[in-house]
Design brief:
- The complex is a heterodimer of chains A (388) and B (154).
- Chain A is built from 12 helices and 12 strands.
- With 388 residues, chain A is an alpha/beta fold.
- In chain A, α6 packs across α9 (286-295).
- Chain A starts with 5 loop residues before the first strand and ends in a 6-residue tail after the last strand.
- The two termini of chain B are 21 Å apart.
- Chain B has one helix at 108-111; strands at 3-5, 11-14, 17-25, 31-32, 47-51, 55-64, 84-90, 96-101, 117-127, 133-141.
- Chain B is built from 1 helix and 10 strands.
- The relative contact order of chain B is 0.22.
- Chain B is mainly β.
- The chains are: A alpha/beta (388), B mainly beta (154).
Chain lengths: 388, 154
């Protein structure tokens, strides 16, 4: 077991969905909320880390917040931007740059699936994009189809996962999709990439999250309910991994980035999957939640049909997953998405999640992101310090 | 009519049919498609060209049911896009390659289910601004009569 990497002492969010505000205006709302939540002011912040894919450079915002001269590092790591920001802030604090920091993630994307005008920047030839293969959900359709074949996962399970997301979203005032959708409606919605249908796939969206973080040994100075970052890990892919934009694969597939990142987080924290009380998993589409349940150690491969059917992953279940509605109900503003999971887990562990609060005995949470070109990041958050 | 491949170095047509052009690492035996200059597994740079088996089995598939954004150059508009099928094909002794599967979307679950034997074909993909036919590679169920050719996007 290692010492805590950080403590989270203030949290702020700008609701996800579509907004008239710019990405940075949303981020400023989230930042001010996080500062107020921690009962500190911007001038107390000694270092900052932030990132956004389409919303501009995070440190531009010092112009609005107050240009105090603090070190402000901009981070961009795809879906793992938030985790990379947390890791960076942790390293800066542990190396003595400062005691109190701010982490922010924000974004605002065009409608429709993510695209790239020049696909060669993703390591494939231009022919790959011209022939219509550079489409993110295509990969997710192919990965879940293979997984369903190997582990007998059903389309009903995919629909139940999506229905749960919208049910949870309906209890979350900050979610984009706040209307419950029935399994029947989900299964009869428009086909996107077989077997994935419209209501099983998340969309790019908008939103912002900010966290005030500090050295774990001084957390009590700022709050009675610190959330300790017991681990924050990021892993890229190994040779032969089945990822987006791979023109060929070997016959022996290695562990996935999600397996690598989650194992590293458990190893670092000294905790095991049995210690985790709630899970925020990358549900780019409902099949991803199903596969990631096993990849991060929540269950064995193939156990998902029964667990989901029994409601184990619902708010009232033993293993609540994506308690705020996940990506399916919140959409994916890339720079903010991973930090949304940390925000939700913190809220739950503080016991402040209102209508969607899980059992008040919840102590530990795992957050997990996954994305192109084959990266994953996990955090393990706890209401208890490693030093207790 | 002139016909040009969508990219050089992907496939080669000969008397016994079409083959994908892969590369095998002389150091660790890993095979990749397309051929690379360094091995993805061991980073060795002694890669030898290898024509990949033209028959394999479907490893996974999905439909592309909405019109891809640019840089997609294939047929279809938002109003008349018919969709196409893509997947990965397991080529024994070589590797698993990503490819178009030449069946209509509505018939895919029947005709290219995982495990179905498929053969490589080269098909017209689009017509370019010079009027030339741009071809691409795809796989088609082995049981299908090769004379009943349809477009890659059917």
């Amino acid at each position: 077991m290692n010492d805590d990497m950080l403590a989270i002492v203030g949290i702020g969010i700008y609701p996800f969905g579509r907004s008239e505000l710019t990405a940075q205006q949303m981020a400023l709302v989230a930042i001010r909320q996080a500062l107020s939540n921690a009962e500190v002011s911007w001038r107390d912040i000694e270092l900052a880390v932030g990132g956004s894919l389409d919303g501009g450079q995070a440190d531009v915002m010092v112009g609005e917040l107050g240009p105090t001269g603090l070190p402000f590092i901009n981070v961009l790591n795809g879906c793992a931007t938030g985790a990379a920001s947390l890791i960076t802030a942790g390293n800066m604090i542990s190396s003595g740059i400062g005691e109190l920091g701010l982490v922010v993630g924000f974004d605002k994307h065009p409608r429709g699936a993510f695209s790239a005008p020049d696909v060669t920047t993703w390591g494939v030839g231009s022919w790959y994009g011209e022939s219509g293969m550079f489409v993110n959900p295509q990969f997710f359709g192919m990965k879940i189809q293979r997984y369903m074949h190997e582990h007998q996962i059903t389309e009903e399970t995919l629909a139940k996962v999506a229905a749960k997301a919208f049910a949870n979203g309906s209890l979350n005032p900050n979610a984009w999709r706040r209307k419950a959708i029935s399994e029947e409606e989900i299964l009869s919605s428009r086909l996107i990439n077989y077997p994935l249908r419209q209501f099983m796939v998340c969309s790019p969206s908008e939103g912002a999250v900010a966290l005030v973080v500090c050295h774990p040994h001084v957390a009590d100075k700022y709050t009675d309910t610190p959330i300790y970052v017991r681990a924050a890990t990021l892993r890229s892919r190994q040779y032969g991994s089945f990822e987006l934009f791979q023109t060929s694969l070997p016959h022996d597939l290695p562990p996935t980035p999600s397996q690598l990142a989650s194992r590293a987080a458990f190893e670092y924290s000294g905790l095991t999957p049995a210690d985790i009380d709630l899970w925020q998993l990358q549900d780019t589409e409902s099949g991803a939640e199903v596969m990631h349940m096993a990849e991060v150690g929540l269950c064995e491969h193939g156990a998902q049909n029964d667990l989901v059917a029994a409601g184990a992953t619902a708010l009232t279940g033993d293993q609540p997953v994506n308690t705020d509605g996940g990506l399916l109900a919140n959409g994916e503003p890339v720079g903010a998405s991973g930090l949304r999971m940390v925000y939700e887990a913190s809220l739950q562990l503080r016991g402040d999640a209102g209508e969607r609060q899980v059992a008040d005995t919840a102590t530990n949470a795992l957050t997990h992101v996954y994305g192109a070109p084959g990266i994953s990041a996990c955090t393990i958050l706890s209401a208890e310090s490693a030093r207790r | 009519m002139t016909s040009i491949p969508i990219a050089e170095g992907l496939f080669r047509e000969s008397d016994d049919g079409a083959h994908l052009i892969g590369g095998r690492c002389r150091s660790c035996d890993a095979v990749s498609f397309p051929m690379r200059s360094t091995c993805g597994r061991c980073q060795h740079d002694d890669i030898v060209e290898e024509l990949l088996p033209r028959t394999g089995t479907v490893w996974t598939w999905t439909s592309q049911s909405f019109l891809p954004k640019a840089p997609y150059t294939g047929p279809g508009t938002d109003s008349d896009f018919e969709g196409f099928v893509v997947g990965y094909v397991d080529l024994p002794g070589a590797c698993i390659v990503q490819a178009r599967l030449d069946v209509p979307v509505a018939e895919a679950s029947e005709r290219v289910a995982i495990g179905t034997p498929v053969d490589l074909v080269v098909l017209p993909f689009r017509t370019n601004s010079d009027g030339a036919t741009v071809t691409t590679y795809a796989f088609r169920p082995s049981s299908q009569n090769p004379s009943s050719q349809e477009g890659a996007t059917s």
